[in-house]
């Protein structure tokens, strides 16, 4: 395994000393946002985690290794290179064997974080059950990863490009705790609430850490979703975002977009259709999640 995993010295020193570390994904950089906002976001998010007293570990694959903690050059390549592969669980072996450049989704980032010994991961949104999944079978591998890999994912819920009720049902079936952070309902990414009730609510990083430690003590393989609503000031009006999502979905259908291209296609269409307003909101919520991720990592470190 060591030959496949390349952990940055700062990250491995923090892990060895039991200091807080927060994992970050790279598909959000390569496929989730346009350049140069993607690079600025990635750098700012790392800065926020440091400001909170934790160590950021952005994860990607290059030159036959999984990198946990990226240098400036690799971060820049991910933000600018054409044809960066989008990696989920099924893609990891292939890209490691071929030596290509790849960005990790939530699923692949969880795998890498767990291999490195990192328990907390912050991002924007998770994948889920797509609308129309009853005919397309399009269910993100993120959900099964949450059921089998013990990493807590701090996110702003999921976008309503997905079928949110089905996504919650699937997570329930697979035994994944979905914890509303300061809320009793599932946040819907651009808006603070989907209206869907959650079984779990926690209001402080310490309470979240206690739950994660209890889950670890049970020996369950599963991760957890920490669903953190977008800050009020950045939430988008639901009518505006719903209209953009409806038309993005129609465009995807017309153009026959399928497989792993669906999510990046929809994200880019929504940015275009909202005149960039969705991008500003997306960046704000990722920053907010990074701060909470760092605080949860610190609370976990304090319990150890
Ligand atoms: N949702 C977002 N932004 C993103 C993604 C999802 O709001 O960037 C990315 C994440 O990397 C997530 C992936 O893991 O898309 C899910 O892709 P798929 O639906 O193909 O599983
Ligand atoms: Mn899919």
Automatic annotation (TrEMBL):
**Catalysed reaction equations from the record:** D-ribose 5-phosphate + uracil = psi-UMP + H2O
Tell me, what is one Gene Ontology molecular-function annotation carried by this entry?
A: hydrolase activity, acting on glycosyl bonds
Cofactor binding remark: Binds 1 Mn(2+) ion per subunit.
The organism's place on the tree of life at top rank = Bacteria
Give the binding site residues for Mn(2+).
138
> What does the record give as cofactor?
Mn(2+)
Q: Which residues bind substrate?
A: 86, 106, 140-142
Where does the record place the catalytic residues? Answer: 25, 159
What keywords would UniProt list here? Glycosidase, Hydrolase, Lyase, Manganese, Metal-binding
Show the InterPro entries listed in the entry: Indigdn_synthA-like (IPR022830), PsuG (IPR007342)
**EC number assigned by the record:** 4.2.1.70
SUPFAM superfamilies in the cross-refs: Indigoidine synthase A-like (SSF110581)
| SUBUNIT field | Homotrimer.
Function as written in the Swiss-Prot or TrEMBL entry: Catalyzes the reversible cleavage of pseudouridine 5'-phosphate (PsiMP) to ribose 5-phosphate and uracil. Functions biologically in the cleavage direction, as part of a pseudouridine degradation pathway.
HAMAP family in the record: PsiMP_glycosidase (MF_01876)
Which family does the record assign?
A: Belongs to the pseudouridine-5'-phosphate glycosidase family.
Protein's name according to its UniProt entry: Pseudouridine-5'-phosphate glycosidase
UniProt organism field? Inquilinus ginsengisoli
